[in-house]
Amino acid sequence: MNFSKYEVGDFFDEMFAEDGSVRPHYQAICERLKDLPDDEMLQKQQAVDRAFLRQGVTFTVYDDDQGTERIFPFDLFPRIIPGEEWEFLEKGLIQRMQALNLFLKDIYSEQRILEEGIIPRPYIESAAHFRPEFMNVPVPKDIYIHICGTDLIRDREGNYLVLEDNARSPSGVSYLLENRDAMKKVFPHFFPQSGTRSVERYTEDLLTNLRYIAPDGVDDPTAVLLTPGVYNSAYFEHSLLARRMGIEIVEGNDLVVENGYVYMRTTDGLERVHVIYRRIDDDFLDPEVFRPDSMLGVPGLIDAYRKGNVSLANTIGTGVADDKLIYKYVPDMIRFYLSEEPLLGQVETFVADDDKERSYILDNLPNLVVKSTNEAGGYGMLIGPHASKSEIDNFHEMISANPRNFIAQPPISLSRHPTITGEGIQGRHVDLRPYILCGKKISVLPGGLTRVALRKGSLVVNSSQGGGSKDTWVLYGES
Amino acid sequence: MLSRVAESLYWIGRYIERADNIARLLDVNLNILTDFKDLNDSRLVEHWEPIIRSTGDWDLFKSLGYKPNSRAATDFLTFDRENPNSIISCLISARQNARIIRDQIPSEVFEAINDTYLDLRNSGSDEVWKAGPYQFYHEIQKFSQLFQGMVASTVVRGLGYYFMECGKFLERADKTSRILDIKYHILLPSVRDVGGVVDTAQWTAVLRSCSAFEAYHRNFVTNVDPTLVTEFLLFSAKFPRAVRYSLARLGDNLNRISHNQADRFSNEAERESGKLFSDMTYISVEEVFTQGLHEYLDYLQLRLNQVGGAIQETFFGLKNE
Predict the structure, then answer these.
(1) Average pLDDT score over chain B
(2) Of the residues A280, B1, B138, B273, which has the fewest C-beta atoms closer than 10 A?
(3) How far is B232 from chain A (nearest CA, A)?
(4) Interatomic CA distance for residues A293 and A299, integer angstroms
């Protein structure tokens, strides 16, 4: 494998320093890769792709009627994070997680942060995922977000920035687990001798946390994973997590609520359920309370939840914390609740709802990235520098009509990472989604899912839009 | 175990057994065609119509515009997704159920099902036909054997296993009875032909379709005799594809599911399956022929459907409770 033609470009490159030298933590793998013929790498890549297809490590594409399942493209070139760098990220993520949980507790009870004028009250009340009807409903152990996926990017100088928090039902962790398994099979001798931190504990920690939040007085709680069903794009993940934890994977129809308690229908009759790891959005949980047309949920579930007879992970209403407008205030939350300075930076954010900032946004659309505040998956987004005149006009109109629904940020050029392409090794943009679990303590899965925009020049890493992934190694040491 | 999960496992057992039986049926019946004298279109109709009738999908076959010949029968029973009982449809259903409950079965079992599905999805009728279907149907049968072997050697003996076995044996009982019924539908040119070359070839094909040819001869050192073939395929307690043998295993597994130790039934599924088993224990093959083989087989399929219905209601039908 030949790096001589590799172009670092005008980006922060994860492997190469600006002068073209290999960063210390990539030196070992660089030596090993140099001896590997290109065609052998390609063969290995194809073997892994086939294995994923055979094992059913796939996601479902809704608008694709041929087969409907695809593998999430996996790039064999691993992303490497040195030990100290990771420890810093871990601290920053834990700090952020603490603040977000304190924020949710506050927002659904005293609302001190609004009283003190740190966040304008209308921003909260207009947030699509704020659930005022759950004010003062007690939440076990005051944990609102149990599973969080926080997306990190690196700017031109290599500083890590938080791009967004996914505090509702983040997905992708199964690919991380499968990627590591695949790498161990294909390149066992590539792993550094000094060691790579294991990702095995994730499902054990998750199960421990799920049991931890069981309703009071339950010694041996039964947890289940609630899925929308086999046609959901992330069904493979639901199934993998349930299998690794040894809990049942249930659909709405499998659960029934009687006298305020939740049961699952088994071949031996009804069996009590205490904790639900739900992979269904708030809106679909209970047709009696939210969308009456939901076929996915369980009638009466919310009643049981309010009575404290069943716990939900994540709990209801956490979406207000990952609203892209509220995001702007996370550093303030950290200062307000923890009296600490935020360790991790984030992207400067302009609020279209603010008159002054809106006029700035509207005047500078070609130079900004505009995001809809409540969309995920890379949808509802305008990348100004790459947009056509009509797309910009379109957003101009939408922002003016509904300013609360939009924010804008300066475009951050994501860092790049050497990636295997049809034209040899080339730089492709990457981000990083670490997974944070919150129970008795907060733990961060070492590394996270590195997503890579496989299309040349593309900045969009989402699986639904041409993204792939890489295995992410956190070293024990520095190289 | 979740009722829905139990149901998925039960149907995996049924669908894979079904695919296996169809593959064997086609394999054998394509094969014996070469033994026939003066093969022409009307002979082909006589040959294939009863076979398609035996699957219970004759009306669908006609409504899809097929004519009974070798190619049409092969396409309809193997590749046609419009036919819910074609091999491809069975594999799609088995694989979809396996995907739903993949946390319940060993990874290698899931991968075997998925592999076969992916291969089958990519193979077209034209190329199979050109290459000779023999190889293809053997692949399907080998997959089924691989599946059975892996299930036998890797699945924990628990509810999931018992439900898969229930599905398998109920399906097998049904399919064996249907294959036997084929002979009823085949009209011999005249009474003189009874016991003739064609007649014997057809009974032999029935035995082979149930993988029973060698077992039959080991059991009865005699010619292929209709009474004995019927006796063997319906009532044998030792031949694993016989209807009565399958019902015995079904009963065992139902008892394990309900932890039933007593000598009474504890649910409708056990009752229906046990009643049918004991009826079959005490009826003689002479009585069957007096009543008419076809009439008896019709009745038997009705009873098997009742057993299936009782299983559905007892274990899976909790939905509106």
Answers:
(1) 89
(2) B138
(3) 35
(4) 11
Angle at B149 between CA B148 and CA B152, to 5 degrees: 85
CB within 8 A of A303, min separation 6: which ones?
A: A257, A260, A286, A288
| Chain A residues lying within 8 Å of B2, measured CB to CB | 248, 250, 254, 264-267
Token digits of residue A388: 């056509």
Contacts of B179 by beta carbon, 8 Å cutoff, 6+ apart: B21, B25, B54, B206, B209, B210, B233
Q: Which residues of B touch A240 (CB under 8 A)?
A: 103
Condensed to tens digits (0 to 9), the pLDDT of residues B9-44 reads: 999 999 999 999 999 989 888 877 777 666 777 878
Q: For residue B179, how many C-alpha atoms fall within 13 Å in the half-sphere facing its CB?
A: 34
Give yes or no: residues B282 and B163 share one domain.
Answer: yes
What pLDDT does residue A413 have?
82
Of B154, B172, B206, which residue sits at a domain end? Answer: B154
Give A335's Cβ-side CA count (13 Å radius): 8
Q: Report pLDDT digits (tens) over A307-361.
A: 999 999 999 999 999 999 999 999 999 999 999 999 999 999 999 999 999 999 9
Answer yes or no: do B172 and B147 share one domain. Answer: no
Burial (CB < 10 A; 0-12, 13-18, 19+), residue B50, is buried
The string of pLDDT tens digits covering residues A174-226 is 999 999 999 998 888 888 887 899 999 999 999 999 999 999 999 999 999 99
Q: Is A267 close to B159, i.e. CB distance below 8 A?
A: yes
Q: Which of A242, A243, A265 sits opposite B318 (nearest CB)?
A: A265
Q: Which residue of A has its CA nearest to B254?
A: A267
Nearest to A253 among B103, B118, B319 (CB): B319
Rounded Cα–Cα distance for residues A329 and B187 (Å): 84
Q: Quick one: B107 and B42 in the same domain?
A: yes
Interface touch A54/B118, C-beta < 8 Å: yes
Nearest CB to B103 within list A54, A242, A265:
A242
A54 has a chain B CB within 8 A of its CB: yes
Chain B residues closer than 8 Å to A264 by CB: 2
Tell me what pLDDT residue A70 has. Answer: 78
Under DSSP, the state recorded for A23 is P
Judgement on whether residues B265 and B124 belong to the same structural domain of the protein: no
CB contact under 8 A, A266 and B2: yes
ipTM of predicted assembly, 2 dp: 0.72
With beta carbons under 8 A apart, name residues in chain B contacting A266: 1-3
Check if CATH label 3.40.50.150 holds for domain A85-178+195-338.
no
Residue B272 sits in which domain range? 158-321
Interface of B with A (CB under 8 A): 1-6, 96, 99-100, 102-103, 107, 110-111, 114-115, 118, 121, 159, 163, 257, 315, 318-319, 321
Is residue A49 within 8 angstroms of chain B, CB to CB?
no
Interchain pair B2, A250: CB under 8 A = yes
pLDDT of amino acid A66 = 47
For chain A, which residues make up each domain, given as ranges? 85-178+195-338, 348-409
Q: Was domain A348-409 assigned CATH 3.30.1780.10?
A: no
* Number of domains making up chain B: 2
Q: From CA B284, how far away is CA B276, in angstroms rounded?
A: 14
Element (H, E) at A69: strand A69-71
- Could you tell me if B180 and B291 lie in one domain? yes
CB atoms within 10 A of CB B228: 16
Q: What is the pLDDT of residues B88-123, one digit of tens each?
A: 999 999 999 999 998 889 989 999 999 999 888 877
The answer, yes or no, to whether residue B205 has pLDDT greater than 90, is no
Q: Which of B112, B132, B154 is the last residue of a domain?
A: B154
